[in-house]
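User: Can you predict the 3D structure for this chain?
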Amino acid sequence: MIEGQEGVSWEQWVALAHACEQHGIDTLFRSDHYMNLDGQHPERGSLDAWGTLCALAAVTSTVRLGTMVSPATFRHPSELARLATTADRISGGRIELGLGAGWHQREHEAHGFNYHDARTRMDILEEQLQVVLGNWAAGPFDFSGDHYRIQELDAQPKPVQQPHPPLLMGGIAGPRGAALAARYADEYNTVFPTLAEIRERRGRLEAASEKAGRTRPLPLSVMTLVLIGSDQSDLDARIARVAAAQGVSVQDFRANINPAWVVGLVDDALEKLHALAEAGVSRVMCQHLAHDDVEFVELLGRTVAPQLP
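Assistant: Here is the predicted structure, written as structure tokens:
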């Protein structure tokens, strides 16, 4: 999971994608932001998420590609559905769409995107979910909502993946988010959770899934920072690299390590990852902040992943 708004160049994207394919990492996700989120590094730009995925789809052959997540505030849902379909066609069926309500107000103000209150953004998200799925379904499709109106649309071509590419949502499994995910999504992702929070959120998703009439609970995935070293010197160097990228000292970084992060030597990481699996997590999206460190991808794919369920 790469934070694209941290100045990731096209050459680095290609290197990361090829490293994933070479070393057995099945899926490469990226954020969908246009600005550095901490406000401290305005010089760090971002290639457009879907432009990047379409391009990567053309220069890869096996790795799955997706967003985590695309804000409903950035694009019209028919445009978003078309972009995802285009990427799915180019890739031969390797695309996953993460969709969320949007949250970074300054980013919206800077680019001229409308930024509504939280309730309205959730209303827009609900309509977008319906419109995206309607675009992908066999037409014609009509929709009339408070924010979008679709008339006799039979969007062609359809995605390669049928009935449609996997649709992911994310958050903390609040009442409305969990209900929407249970109704429309194929997976739910939550960020930096403790084991206790995972169990709580999984319980809310299971209840929402049952209420929505799903035959199986919605799969739950986790996105968290992962920093692993093959030995102590390798780990120290990797921590120093990430601390420098974040503009903090190594001491400050170590003092503020989130207990939900996976930081340590291989055995330490495996222990934490196995605990996530036992708590009901279906997959982990490893946030990789030193995006020029392709050796980490090799360590993750060659050494860590084969020892996981």
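The domain at 4-170 is CATH 3.20.20.30 (TIM Barrel). DSSP finds eleven helices and eleven strands in the chain.
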